[in-house]
Amino acid sequence: MPEEKPRCEWCLKDQLYRDYHDKEWGIPQYDNKKLFELLILEGAQAGLSWHTVLKKRESYRQAFEQWDIEKIARYDDAKKAELLNNPGIIRNRLKIAATISNAQAYLKMQENGEGFSEFIWSFTAGKPIVNHFNSLNELPAKTTLSDKMSKALKQKGFRFVGSTICYAFMQAAGLVDDHMLYCWKRSTNQSG
C-alpha cells in the first residue's frame, strides 16, 4: 500500500520512525530541557542507529528522571552503576559519564546567565536554515556550522558533541530543515 504522504526516505522503516519524522524531526525546538534531551540522545546514538535510540527513548526519560538536569548533574558512582545495569538505555560507561558532565556544563552556563536555547540558536541567528535537498545522498554528515557548534560546546565542557553529532542534533531540533524537497513536512516548516 503506498504512503498517503510523501516523506523523507529515511523514515519509512516503521511507524516509530514515521511518527518521529512527522511530529518532531526538523521542527524548531526552543525548550531548554528538550534541546538537552536531544543533544544527549544524539550523543548516545554514536556508533548506533537512531532507530535504536528512539526505541529506548522512554527508558531514557525514566532513567534520567524526565531529564531533570539538576538531579543528573549530582549523580554519583552508585547512580552510574545503576545506569550501567539498566537494559532500557545504552549501557556505555563513557556515554553515561558524558550525560552527567553535560548536565554539569549546562548548569554552569545557567549560573553564568547563559541560556542553553539561546546559545544553541545563536549558531543560526535564532531561526532555521532551510536546505534544498532532493535525496538522502545530498545530506551532509557535518557542516562548517556544526564544526563551530561542536567546538563551542566542547569549550563549555560538553562531551560526545562531535561535529557529526551536532549536525544530527541541528536536524532533530529544527535548526536546519533537511526535509527533502518532496516531503510533505517541508511546507509546514517554511513558516517557522
Describe the structure in your own words.
This protein is mostly helical. Helix content is 54%, strand content 2%. The protein contains 10 helices and 2 strands. It has helices spanning 15-23, 32-45, 50-63, 69-73, 77-84, 93-111, 116-121, 144-155, 163-172, 184-189, and strands at residues 129-130, 176-177. Strands 1-2 form a two-stranded parallel ribbon. Helix 2 packs across helix 3, helix 2 (32-45) crosses helix 9 and helix 8 packs across helix 9 (163-172). The chain is globular, with a radius of gyration of 17 Å. The two termini are 32 Å apart.
Features:
single chain; mainly alpha; two-stranded parallel sheet; 10 helices
Shape: globular
Task: Compute the number of helices.
Answer: 10
Estimate the helix proportion, in percent: 40-55%
Strand content: under 5%
Strand pairing plus helix content: what structural class? mainly alpha
Question: Mind telling me the C-alpha Rg?
Answer: 17 Å
Helix-strand sequence: HHHHHHHEHHEH
Largest sheet report: 2 strands, parallel
Strand order of the largest sheet: 1-2
Which segments are poorly predicted (pLDDT under 50) over 5 or more consecutive residues? none
Number of strands: 2
* Separation, N- and C-terminal Cα atoms: 32 Å
Instruction: Kindly report the average pLDDT value.
Output: 94
